[in-house]
Amino acid sequence: MNRVADVIRDDIKVMTAYQVADLPEGFIKLDAMECPHHPFAGYESLLSEWADLAKQAPIHLYPHTAKSGIYEELRDVFGIPDKAEIALGNGSDELIQFLTMLVAKPNARVLGIEPSFVMYRHNAALYGMEYVSVPLNPDFTLNLPAVLSAIEQHQPSLIFIAYPNNPTGVCFKREEVEAVIRAATGIVVVDEAYGAFHHDSFLTWAGEVENLVVMRTISKIGFAGLRMGYAAASPSIMGELAKILPPYNMNQLSLAVAKFSLKHHQIIQQNIDTLKTSVRA
Ligand SMILES: *Cc1c(COP(=O)(O)O)cnc(C)c1O
User: Fold this and answer.
1) Above 90 in pLDDT, residue 122?
2) Of the residues 76, 128, 154, 273, which has the maximum number of CB atoms within 10 A of its CB?
């Protein structure tokens, strides 16, 4: 008898593992939205300061995220309001996982739109939750009446809205997202992974609106390899999330390098501006 196959969950046995695409020679990889170059390429002194930081990072000690100074740096650079508490994830993918775990009561539902970021549905499935998806309009705009009626009908515990949306690149109207937040019966995660490429953000609402989580990442602005996502929300959510996040999910190297990078955010902003103009050209 094959005991391994017997003990593993049937729903996982029929899944396929996430495939990181191999890049054939001469191709340009676009699907993961990585910055095409090192964010400090061409800045020799920054690169050597960065190497020194890595040398000095206390890798023999467990990381202490709260004491590392990273929260202060994030508040400063991105204007996270004082009222909001911050949580860090090993990529925002990890925050999606733990936010889903937080509400995974029997019969609880997650609502997302379709198409959107694949991890919302995947995590709902992993935690045994029903995923209610509401299709976008044919022009990729939000079908607000359909979303509102799905909220009323299914009373989701968690709603994910990518603002701007991935993979369509379209950003929904702010008033529509506000209407979703107001109508929600549970937590709404506004996922601003691409926030740097848009002129609007819900970050100023973080901490103000009890059921809102604003989630962001430094991946799409040049640091996908550091694996650092952050979420800002009210103490009612963050106090509970803190109980289930692994205490050492961030690592000393990422923390040190991320802090240093945020200090040089003007260069990051220049890179974003360059990316935006090269795409437009
Ligand atoms: C890339 C992406 C993420 C995951 O980002 P990481 O911080 O690298 O895990 C989450 N949400 C959306 C919409 C994304 O595009």
Assistant:
1) yes
2) 154
